[in-house]
Write a structure and sequence with these properties.
alpha/beta; Rossmann fold; seven-stranded parallel β-sheet; six-stranded parallel β-sheet; 44% helix; globular; glycosyltransferase activity; transmembrane; Glycosyltransferase_grp1; Glyco_trans_1; transmembrane helix
Length: 374
């Protein structure tokens, strides 16, 4: 069995990129041959400690990365795919049984490859494509042609089925088992901090976290700091200006990209995890925090509301109500009993989302499609 996985770009250290790594790892573990293709690779900003473990091929020459933005590279790869991919297969004398397109524009590539080589293909989406006009018409046509479609969680499945008018299989992302104990939890209160691990983009609303920290300065709880991971962008400068405006000084710490093993240590030390993105398709960071026994606070909207059980494994705030969000963070900092109870419940719940369960859903359905064509 040989499968080609298509992923649009490896430009950031995000959940979609981590998911692709886990898919490659699992498929190789069960004995499949796997090649991964993309339009763009940034080895400095996309999990620099992990990406070297995986052989990823660029559809177009990597030298173009220095002069062409990653978004444009995705478009160029799509336009040139019908020539570039067959050329690669011919040059390397390689042959695939199945094509797997994960997130836009990869389903288009999987569709083209399927038609050229007359093999089945599957689509994996974390959200419907944000295209308009004729491009969206083409996208809907391509997705409907797929042998199988998967969605990243219940919310993504609902949105994709509504948009594309076809069945999607619920196949949420996963998480590695984290460590948690009473001893680990007690150690958190010696150097208390709250944590955000989202990418630095305006849509993630990390500024909410800074505003929340300002509101926590009440004297009724331990003095906490806010730690923010992620590669710095132009948006980071906006966040730093906000920190200066609120005179928070060294109470906000920007930690840049964190190696995977160090990130787990950072999770284990946090008292509360803040997921400030108002509309997120899934929320892998929430699961990662839960696995380490950190109660999350997120908005009661989109993907997170299907992950967090409000009042048991974390809190869900009223959408758009920052005071309500702040109040829920305060509760977890003031009441140690509540914090521990939710931390333990979150840790136990995260066990329902192992990465291998995600990959086994893919394996089962891909095998089924191949066998149905024999």
């Amino acid at each position: 069995m040989k499968i080609a996985i298509f992923h649009p770009e490896f430009a950031f250290a995000g959940g979609a990129e981590r998911m692709t790594f886990e898919q490659i790892r699992y498929f190789k573990k069960i004995g499949w041959e796997v090649d991964c293709f993309t339009a763009f690779i940034d080895r400095e900003n996309c999990y620099p400690d992990k990406i070297g473990e995986y052989e990823i091929h660029q559809i177009l020459p990597g030298a173009l990365n220095r002069i062409i933005p990653h978004q444009v590279m995705v478009v160029l790869a799509t336009l040139c795919f019908a020539l570039a991919f067959p050329a690669y297969c011919l040059l390397h004398s390689t042959y695939y049984n199945f094509f797997f397109g994960s997130n836009q524009a990869a389903p288009w590539w999987a569709f083209f490859a399927s038609k050229m080589f007359k093999k089945p293909f599957a689509v994996y989406l974390n959200y419907p494509a944000r295209l308009k006009g004729p491009l969206m018409v083409v996208d809907k046509f391509i997705v409907k042609q797929a042998n199988t479609c998967f969605a990243d969680g219940k919310f993504a499945r609902l949105m994709c089925e509504k948009t594309y008018g076809r069945k999607f299989i619920n196949c949420p992302g996963g998480v590695d088992g984290g460590k948690f104990s009473r001893k680990i939890w007690e150690a958190r209160w010696r150097d208390p901090y709250i944590l955000i691990t989202n990418r630095h983009f305006p849509a993630k609303r990390i500024d909410y976290g800074i505003k929340i920290l300002k509101s926590l300065d009440t004297g009724h709880m331990p003095p906490v700091t806010l730690k923010i991971t992620g590669a710095q962008t132009k948006y980071t400068q906006t966040l730093k200006k906000l920190v200066k405006k609120y005179e928070l000084g060294n109470r906000v710490k920007f930690l840049d990209l964190i190696a995977d093993k160090d990130l787990k240590t950072l999770y284990r030390g946090a008292l509360v995890y803040l997921y400030t993105a108002p509309s997120e398709d899934f929320g892998l960071g929430i699961l990662e925090a839960m696995a380490c026994g950190v109660p999350p606070v997120a908005w009661n909207n989109a993907g997170p509301k299907y992950i967090v059980e409000n009042g048991k494994t974390g809190f869900l705030a009223k959408p758009g109500d920052l005071d309500n969000f702040t109040d829920k963070v305060k509760k977890l900092l003031v009441s140690r009993r509540m914090n521990f109870k939710m931390a333990l419940a979150a840790h136990v719940y995260s066990g329902e989302y192992p990465w291998d369960a995600h990959a086994r859903i893919l394996e089962h359905n891909i095998k089924g499609e191949i066998h149905s064509l024999v």
